[in-house]
Amino acid sequence: MSGYNDDKIKKALESNEVPDELSPENIKLMLDQKAPKKKREKISRKTTRMIAGTVACAVICGSGVYIAEQGNLFNTEKDSVGLLVEDYSENVTDKKNPETSKAISVMPCARSYEMLYNMLGDANEKYEDSRKDYFFYGGDDMVMEESAVENAMGTITDGEIATNAPSAINPGNDATATDRTEHSDTYNQEEGVLEADIVKTDGEFIYYLSSGSYGKYFENINSLCTVRAENGVFAEPDIVDLKDVFKNATAYTREPDTLSVLDMYLYNDLIAVIGSNTDYSYYTCDEGENSEMLYGHAYNRSYSETFVAFFTQGDNPQLVDFYSQEGYYSDVRISPDGFMYLVTETSSQDYDIIEDEENINALVPSYTNDGDTCCIEPACIFVPEEGIPESNRIFYTVISSINLNTPAVAELSQITSVASASGNIYCSANNLYLASGYEKTEITRVALDSGSITPVATGSVNGYTKDQFSMSEYNGYFRIVTTVNTWRDSLWDQITGETGRDINNHLYVLDMSLNQVGHITDFGIDETVKSVSFSGDMAYVVTYRQTDPLYSIDLSAPAQPVILDELKILGYSSYMQNWSDGLLVGFGPDADENGRENGVKLVMFDNSDPDNLNEVGIYSVNYNDDEWLYSIAVWERKALLIAPEKNLVGFPVDMEYYENDTWYDESKYMFFSYDNGEFTLKGELSTGQSTEYGKGNLNRALYIGDYVYALSANKFISADIETMTVKDTLEF
Fold first, then answer.
1. Which residues, in sequence order, are bridge partners of residue 510?
2. Are the beta carbons of 106 and 345 closer than 8 angstroms?
3. Interstrand relation of 726-731 and 715-720 (parallel, antiparallel or unpaired)
4. pLDDT at position 294, please?
5. In the prediction, which pLDDT does 226 show?
6. Pairwise CA distance, residues 620 & 629, whole Å
7. Could you tell me the CA-to-CA distances from 702 to 440, 668, 693, 720 in Å, in that order?
8. DSSP state string for 167-197
9. What share of the chain is helix, strand, coil (3-state, %, to 5)?
10. Is the whole model's pTM more than 0.70, yes or no?
11. Cβ 334 vs Cβ 340: under 8 Å
């Protein structure tokens, strides 16, 4: 890279003016930031959570920052090297492969921590002014100056947005999975883009994550249960108490008292466990601060991190690698080229708490690599060109990439933070989209390319999105479905003192620069979006208030989307998934003619002719006056088992009912087949009656070979996939 840097400097010296980044004061600042720990002066001496310097923390950040060598997450031998922030108006090319262009960010990166602090100061000043205006004048809006970043760091011209070529497809799960018994897997929204879950199988073992969210009632358990399952018979379980593991791990630097495990992958001989930990005692207030101030800044006294702990697969899993980054867990994906992308959300402290730009641990997010904790470098932090929105803090989305292409090895590739971008996550093979907002959804497209992370486009649409399935990328276009609430304030509303709202739904088609290409509205009036399923050039949207209208929308002409048909049935589908060509399966709450929910239902839609949608099968599970039921699958689609290859679909049901003067709790998993236009109940696997509410509810199911398995935090049940005869039960 030295030759490239020499050319850059030579070019700058031959120009009429010296670029801002090569000015004496900025060169000194850059050297200070890259100096060893003992020489850095920008780190607050008040903190102990950040270990200064880049030793064991140097990563690629942004398309214009390079390091010479990457190592294993636990490798403490690697050394820091000089970093050079490139001008983002230039297209960066790989010197070994000059024809390969890298994506260029439409956002400038921060040049220094001081710049971020000053930008936050401007945003805080406007925030305080707007609060005064709101108090005295009724809340006049403040307009952010568009030149905020230019004032802080000079004019930056947007460069070209490089097109990402499709990546080579990685086999994905465990390398030896093809030699094992046929088994189910977590359904992925996009082919080849792997999604995590609390349950995984490789066809030989079942891996189950238990946490306080899924375990025994009010019992904070965090464990990884590994069970060999052969022909429906369970071996002795191997249960790893993750709190104990982390307490004894030198790479883990915090007390795991508030630990919570959330998701998991099996990949390339590794078990990747994703979890979070929140330390509510980290930030302490100065002596003499009164109780009112303590209460007012309670949020600022907590610190949350999200971690990935890598274990060996098979019997007796052992911790081999550990990585964490600041922020609350948002989502995670593994791309087709074998990189894990971990997304978290966090914020700086309040402006008046930070005190000055030297307290960078309170200003920017941090990450931990092999026990060494570092703040993210300014060159790795992208900021909106118009500056930080009116606020007393900076909100960040932190994205890291971890290389999983070498069996049993995880290598940290890059960490990037995007200021003022967050929300729902949608991920295609080459792009990750951040979508947040209510009245208006702000969208950021982040290009993913072999571990590199670059924000390359921003845009906005009206309304808010429900979830990841409300978004889709296809044939060079990004499609998004939103619900728009417009509050009425007519003269009649003012006279009567009543308020109301008009609800509308929109579908937008955007290009890769997130410019609007096509738009359709006025469907599901006065109803909200409940589920969306994209399939090629078609979109299927369910809206609901009293009935379930299913809309088929043709997107084959991106500039002119067209609604083809509308089908209404009772209840609504909270989730839809392709069953086969011409069939779409839905699951969600059932309801009566008045829109009162009274149970759950499976429904099959015939969409072979999008101009003529039909319901071709429905099965409802309803409750009476003396009982109540619900299904976690209404809001957690991963609780569903949808396996068309086995003609099998299932969902969990938790029931409470009154019998013989006693309230009972029962959890069961129901399995169905679908033939000739109807669902047939194949069987149920149940935990049985219990007077202990919420004890071990069944929340997942999978199949291995000719057996199905219904799973809870303390009980596994297996059964023959055809007869549903119970084969074995395991309690732990």
1. 478, 516
2. no
3. antiparallel
4. 34
5. 97
6. 12
7. 39, 14, 25, 12
8. PPPP--S-TTGGGSPPB--PPPSSTT-B--B
9. 15, 40, 40
10. yes
11. yes
